[in-house]
Amino acid sequence: MKEEVRIDKWMWAVRLFKTRSLAADACKKGKVSVNGSAVKPSRSVRVGDMVGVKRNPVLFSFKVLALAENRMGAKLVPGFMENVTTPDQLELFELGRIAAQHNRDRGTGRPTKKERRDLDDFFEPVFFDEHDFDDPEN
């Protein structure tokens, strides 16, 4: 068994990135760190290293449990890495995910008829009659 594996190969093998070239690009852009320092795609990782992957605005952290050069099935991944991301970063990720579900992306077109009616109901001013403020005794 090997003692070292390239970081881009390892991240691709444990399914952190869909392709190895995406993993290498993330390294080149400074979004990947090993033990706290930014790395190039050719940097070797060993068992016990801490790998950080920045996906705005969240910094995911993983501990290397075993090395792999070949892509594996998703069921095998927990044997090769452990997710040690801090709870505050996970909360930030959840908030971003929830916000993305409820907001319309800029430039995706006009609202549907139902969405427009919902917006009209939300922003429609409410007017009170004089009878709303009368004495309850009369």
Structure in words:
This protein has 138 residues and is of the alpha+beta class. It has a single domain (5-124), classed as Structural Genomics Hypothetical 15.5 Kd Protein In mrcA-pckA Intergenic Region, Chain A. 31% of the residues lie in helices and 18% in strands. The protein contains four helices and seven strands. It has helices at residues 7-13, 20-28, 87-102, 113-123, and strands spanning 5-6, 32-34, 37-38, 44-45, 50-55, 58-64, 81-83. The strands form two sheets. It has a five-stranded antiparallel beta sheet with strand order 3-2-5-6-7. Helix 1 crosses helix 2. The model has no long low-confidence stretch (mean pLDDT 86).
Widest β-sheet, arrangement of strands = 3-2-5-6-7
The CATH superfamily name is RNA-binding S4 domain
CATH class: Alpha Beta
What percent strand? 15-25%
CATH topology: Structural Genomics Hypothetical 15.5 Kd Protein In mrcA-pckA Intergenic Region, Chain A
Please summarize the sheet with the most strands: 5 strands, antiparallel
Overall shape: elongated
**H/E series:** EHHEEEEEEHH
Total domains? 1
Class computed from helices, strands and strand pairing: alpha+beta
In total, how many beta strands? 7
Known CATH architecture? Roll
Beginning-to-end CA distance, first to last residue: 91 Å
Multimerization status: single chain
Mean pLDDT: 86
Helix content: 25-40%
Number of DSSP helical runs? 4
Radius of gyration: 25 Å
Low-confidence stretches: none
